[in-house]
Amino acid sequence: MEQAKSALKTVQTTVTNSIKDFIGADKGNKNNEQNSSATKDESTSSETYETTDASKSSGSRPRQLSIRDIPMLENVQEVKKIFNRHLHFTVAKDRDIATSHDYYTTVAYTVRDHLIGRWIRTNQHHFENDEKRVYYFSLEFHMGRALSNCLINLGIEDTVNEALSQMGLNLEELEELEPDAALGNGGLGRLAACFLDSMATLGFAGYGYGLRYDYGIFAQKIQDGYQIEYPDSWLKFGTPWEIGRPEHLIPINFYGKVIDDENGKKKWIDTEIIHAMPYDAPTPGYNNNIVNTLRLWSAKARGEFNFQFFNAGDYIRAVAEESLAENITRVLYPNDNFDEGKILRLKQEYFLVSASLQDIIRRFKNSKIFSNKNKKIDFTYFPEKTAIQLNDTHPALTVAELIRLLIDEENLEWNQAFDITKKVIAFTNHTLLPEALERWPIDMFKKLLPRHFQIITDINSHHLDLVRKKWPDDEERVKRMSIIGGEKQVVNMGYLSVVGSHVVNGVAQLHSNLLKSTIFKDFYELNPEKFQNKTNGITPRRWLLTCNPDLSELISSKIGDDWITDLRELSKLRNYIDNEQFIHDLQQVKLENKKRLVKVLENDFKVKVNPNTMFDIQVKRIHEYKRQLLNCLHVITLYNRIKDNPNIDIVPRTVIFSGKSAPGYPTAKLIIKLICNVARTVSDDPAVGERLKVIFLENYRVSLGMYITIKSF
């Protein structure tokens, strides 16, 4: 994202009390839009680790915002006071009748109070400084639990813990009551969540856009070795970590037809309209008072409840429109093994893209640069103020939708709209599998999104003209590179993403190289300057500081705390590679973490494990290319070696699998069944003993992952 790099600079001055407070109450009322908006993306060079916060180009510390006049949880007594206020006036309970969940909700609101002032102030700061904002589009945000993350990033964990302890409550037990936000499934969603954390920590005006799924992908149960899917009712009791924004309800169009009006301009009419309702969740940076926003869209029916049908006794038809409309955000990745599922999946992707782009354009038009009423909206500034990152091909329709909005709604010419679109959009590819590129049948696509098919046809024509110009006598290459067509007559969303972006990256150096030599080889030869590498990383705040406090404390005791925002600092641990005391302490931390995991396995999964065995763990989405099958074959090999030679000298091993298969993916489900059968066979064999144990942990999620991938080492 070379063009974004210059705009995504960190502010080099720490705002202190001696600096002018930019927030005055009168400024806070200037633009109501700022109560719900603020965004930006993390920039990295082609070989940095994006989400490790190592990309501070100026070498400065992350920006700190002034928090003058914002109420603080300065001491234990203040926490207790706010806690009791929320228990009585928000939850409407007293200590005699409050449940454990009531106490969790109360402490969540107490912490949220500490976020709100910083959240509003961050948005006002972005408006006043008119910063370039980066919008991260992803169909998944695998966020995990919010409470523990907020406590760590805000630096109030010890204070809140002590306050609760004095009231006879246990913070760790209350944290366990929070359901994981069911917004993702695999690494793609976890990367998106890590980006949000890193953007806020680095002080970028970062914004995430996703969908607010009612039931996530599903809650997984293992019955007789088979995966059974159930609704993940994470919103059953509501969530204190979101705020609805009905004032920004956005209409989304489907179906209809395209006509030429009296001026020869294309007009999309007779559409079916579904409304997108935004819900905002705060995403705090680490120890810098910055709170960015994750905006999630929920589908709402356009029409009202039909009293005529209801009064006539036709109760199903009375709510049919509402139910069908809101199916768009019921679940993540609906089963697309049949046409209805494919249509719903395509609707989801367009719903996300259209709502988000309309919201971005609204924010751009309300930005400070146009605050003078006599200042005309000028979209030539749009690339200077906006960067959009596509997280895989799911949001590929961003290309066509942004062009549509610029041409049809903002009256730009086609060439200008396409040029702006390319300057704004960057594309991350996650896998080389053809299925991940997404190909939609032309007939289905034209029916659902007729205007977009016209626009993609124009994009393709422009693109193929460039191909023919470079290779004038190579029609085979032209066919290979066409966005539309092919043997199965499809619209290729991966190709659309490449053509409509100014930067394309893989997520590891090998992966990025393979992109250029395999699936996007022709496109690389056409525009080699587009292709970069961005090696994925993870946020150390959640995956080390939060879930492995003992290891974090040991590291900080040797090299200080700077590693929390710059993992390059960990290289200083090389100085202790021969330090016997440090190695001993490190081994002790590892053993204690394994013991904690053993307790979780015994209490939650009724499985007894020896903590002194070697833990061999593979947790990720179940798929043939993820190689759980290969790992299982290795387990079978180990088992056969023990059976063939009962006296074999072998390192005792506990093999742990966890992950979900897509509901419509029978092969992946059979891999789960095989693992469970192998686990039962090994566990029931007394000749094996503790030398080999196999476990499949059901319903993998971020909170479980924090135990089995971190507390095991």
From TrEMBL:
This is Alpha-1,4 glucan phosphorylase. InterPro entries: Glycg_phsphrylas (IPR011833), Glyco_trans_35 (IPR000811). GO terms for cellular component: cytoplasm. It catalyses: [(1->4)-alpha-D-glucosyl](n) + phosphate = [(1->4)-alpha-D-glucosyl](n-1) + alpha-D-glucose 1-phosphate. The keyword Glycosyltransferase applies. Residues 54-63 have a biased composition (Polar residues). It comes from the Eukaryota. Transmembrane segments: none annotated. Homodimer; enzymatically active. Interacts with PPP1R3B; recruits the phosphatase PP1 which dephosphorylates and inactivates PYGL/glycogen phosphorylase. Allosteric enzyme that catalyzes the rate-limiting step in glycogen catabolism, the phosphorolytic cleavage of glycogen to produce glucose-1-phosphate, and plays a central role in maintaining cellular and organismal glucose homeostasis. It is an enzyme of class 2 (transferase). The keyword Glycosyltransferase applies. GO terms for molecular function: glycogen phosphorylase activity; pyridoxal phosphate binding. Keywords: Carbohydrate metabolism, Glycogen metabolism, Glycosyltransferase, Pyridoxal phosphate, Transferase. Belongs to the glycogen phosphorylase family. GO terms for biological process: glycogen catabolic process. Its EC number is 2.4.1.1.
